[in-house]
Amino acid sequence: MKPEKLAALTDEQLLKQKKIIKNTHNIILATGVVAMLLAFIMFGYHIGKDAATGGQSTFYYKPLLPFVFIFIIGNVVVLSEKKSIDDEIKKRKLG
After folding, report:
1. Is the dihedral of CA 66, 69, 71, 75 positive or negative?
2. d(CA 35, CA 89)
3. Where are the transmembrane segments (predicted)?
C-alpha cells in the first residue's frame, strides 16, 4: 500500500488491515505447503514407478505450477504489504 493511503487510515482500520494481511499470508502459506507436499508425493510415486517399469515413467509437474507461482508471487506481495503496515503501526506507536 502507498504511504499516503496508509496515513489516511484510522487506527482501527490499520489494525483491521493488519489482521486481514495476516490471514491472507496464512492462506498463501498453507497453499504452498500443500503444493510442496503433493509435489513430494508425486515425485516419490514417479521414482517408484520409474524403478518398477525400467525408466518408462514420466513426472507430471505441470498441474502444480499455478500453486507454486501463487505461493511465490503472493508471498512477496503480502510480505511487502505487511512490512509497510507494520512500519505505519510503529510510527503511530499502536503496538
Report:
1. negative
2. 33
3. 27-47, 59-80
What residues have CB less than 8 Å from 31, skipping those under 6 apart? 67, 70, 71, 74
Tens digits of residue pLDDT in 22-73: 999 999 999 889 988 998 999 999 889 888 888 888 888 888 888 888 899 9
Measured distance CA(6)–CA(86) in Å, rounded:
10
* Cell numbers describing residue 64: 502444480
Q: Which residue in this structure is represented by grid cell 496515513?
A: 7
Residue 61 CA, chain-centre distance (Å), reads 19
Q: Which residues of 55-80 are buried (b: 16+ CB within 10 A; e: fewer)?
A: eeeeeeeeeeeebeeebeebeeebee
Check: pTM over 0.85? Answer yes or no: no
- Residues 67 and 34 sit within 8 Å (Cβ to Cβ): yes
